[in-house]
Design a protein that fits this description.
With 516 residues, the chain is of the alpha+beta class. The strands form six sheets. A six-stranded antiparallel β-barrel has the order 3-4-5-8-7-6. The protein has a six-stranded antiparallel barrel with strand order 9-10-11-14-13-12. A hairpin with a 2-residue loop joins β18 and β19. It is globular, with a radius of gyration of 30 Å. The N terminus is likely disordered.
């Protein structure tokens, strides 16, 4: 009888190689040996070098955005202990502006802007009130990104604030300086400094890489939901590149890690402890709380604009000068397209880059700077990343034929669109409702004019008129075209109150707008 010892990762398995049946041992010894082998096989796992290597990794999980960090039962404990000190509470205070309304709008129906509407605006989700209610203050989260005291948070957490207070884990409070904001991505950069010019570095989080995220990866959120400081929740990446209609550059990470009012601006981290997202929005239930669907801005979006925010306080982006819409199968058929790919040009801004190059309404943009435009949502992101002053080739389909235009991209200025609204007596930019707009925006009326932009501090904006509203009457006079709108509003006198009838989300409301 010979016995050979095989060792694999510290586990010794004794195998009787031969001689058992040929030996002169009695039957009882054979039985004992068999029982020994069977028991060992049941109690001890065995792995062999020629077995698929994947067997050796059973019981371990590796996330693609965090290299090869193994998952263990204490991993989240370690992350929370290490990263909590760099997560902060952000509170803001602003002056209360008087609200002038002579007509109280009727409550919207269930599921149409009411308590069951899943995509209520960010203020409902994180502050519990809407912008036109002029909150005295709001509370959110943020996180330090370097030892100097720079903090990333959401723009809507600090928007309009006259005073921003940051509270660290040790309950020390600092008055923060607003460095820069970007409403289009809902990102803001603020900064705190040590008292009396102290040089002690602040704890901070490392910005990871959201490009390599995969659905199913473990993630951790830290924030201050409902004022409960440094609450830790854990979940997975549920989906990527979600468009929830929050802005032109929507590309949200969806997660089931519990995010609630107050988490806004806080970090979403991978299992390495690196920040891969900024918690921003949720779909809420009737209670306003989390139902397992939250959204975070990919950290790579913040990394792209961080330099601009630090140096200029604003973000420089490329501008093409077109208004685009999604191509539906019906539109594709009407325009003679092979498929529904591309971005349909609904309007061209006069004297803009596209206008100068010859782009026309009805063109379908299918390629920008050699990058295919398969989805309408992709074009604004590609254009925004283009350096202003650079000439690019834009391919369009016009009347069933492809045409290529050389276009010099210009700087996107908020005033390029908002200027029209600011020159308006009530601070609105409106446009006629075309059949294409009705289909793409799913409007339930062709009567009226569509509000395409609102000046936040304008008379209509302060009264509660929103982008996407359809104005059907002003002072009880029907409004069917932009000419009708301009005729009535231009006649309004300073100090007077103008009555708007607005169609919003399937319901009609009155809004009284006082002309300042």
């Amino acid at each position: 009888m010979q016995v050979k010892a095989l060792t694999d990762k510290g586990i010794n398995v004794f195998i009787i190689m031969d001689g058992i049946m040929r030996s002169h041992m009695n039957l009882n010894i054979v039985k004992h040996a068999f029982v020994f082998l069977l028991t060992g096989a049941l109690l001890f796992p065995v792995s062999f070098s020629n077995v698929d290597k994947s067997v050796a990794f059973l019981g371990q999980a590796f996330a693609l955005s965090s290299d090869t960090v193994p998952f263990s039962s204490n991993l989240f404990v370690d992350i929370a202990k290490k990263q909590n000190p760099a997560v902060v509470n952000v509170s803001s205070k602003s002056k209360v502006k008087p609200v002038t309304r002579q007509f109280r709008p009727p409550p919207p129906p269930q599921g149409k802007g009411g308590p069951n509407d899943p995509f209520k605006d960010f203020y409902d989700r994180f502050f519990g009130q809407r912008p036109d209610q002029r909150p005295k203050g709001g509370t959110g989260s943020g996180f330090l990104i370097d030892p100097e005291g720079y903090i990333l948070t959401n723009n809507h957490v600090v928007e309009g604030a006259e005073e921003i207070t940051v509270t660290l884990e040790d309950d020390k409070e600092y008055v923060a300086e607003l460095i820069g904001t970007d409403s289009k991505t809902d990102i803001a950069l603020i900064k705190i400094s040590r008292e009396n010019g102290g040089k002690e570095p602040f704890p901070f989080l490392k910005l990871g890489d959201s490009e390599n995220l995969e659905v199913g990866e473990w993630v951790m959120a830290i924030g201050n939901p409902f004022g409960l400081s440094h609450t830790v929740t854990v979940g997975v990446v549920s989906a990527l590149s979600r468009n929830i209609g929050a802005g032109p550059y929507d590309e949200f990470i969806q997660t089931d890690a519990s995010i609630n009012p107050g988490n806004s601006g806080g970090p979403l981290m991978n299992i390495k402890g690196d920040v891969i997202g900024i918690n921003t929005a949720i779909i809420s239930g009737n209670s306003g709380g989390n139902v397992g669907i939250g959204f975070a801005i990919p950290i790579n979006i913040a990394k792209i604009i961080l330099k601009d925010l630090k140096e200029k306080g604003t973000v420089t982006r490329g501008w093409l000068g077109v208004m685009i819409q999604k191509i539906t199968p019906e539109l594709a058929k009407s325009f003679g397209l092979k498929d529904a790919k591309g971005a349909l040009v609904g309007d061209v801004i006069p004297d803009g880059p596209a206008f100068k190059a010859g782009i026309k309404r009805g063109d379908v943009i299918v390629s920008f700077d050699k990058q295919a435009v398969d989805e309408m949502e992709a074009l604004p992101k590609i254009v925004a990343k283009t350096v202003p002053g650079r000439a690019v080739k834009v391919k369009v389909v016009r009347d069933g034929k492809e045409k290529v235009f050389d276009i010099t991209i210009e700087v996107l200025k908020d005033t390029s669109v908002v200027a029209v609204a600011k020159n308006d007596p009530v601070g609105l930019q409106v446009q006629d409702i075309t059949p294409e707009l009705m289909k793409s925006l799913k409007l339930d009326t062709k009567n009226g004019v569509l509000v395409s932009d609102v000046t936040p501090d304008g008379a209509a904006g302060e009264a509660g008129v929103r982008r996407g509203d359809v104005i059907t009457e002003i002072n009880r006079a029907p409004i069917n075209t932009v000419a009708d709108y301009k005729h009535v509003t231009s006649a309004a006198k300073k100090g007077s109150t103008v009555l708007f009838l607005v169609r919003r989300g399937g319901t009609t409301i009155y809004v009284a707008v006082k002309i300042d």
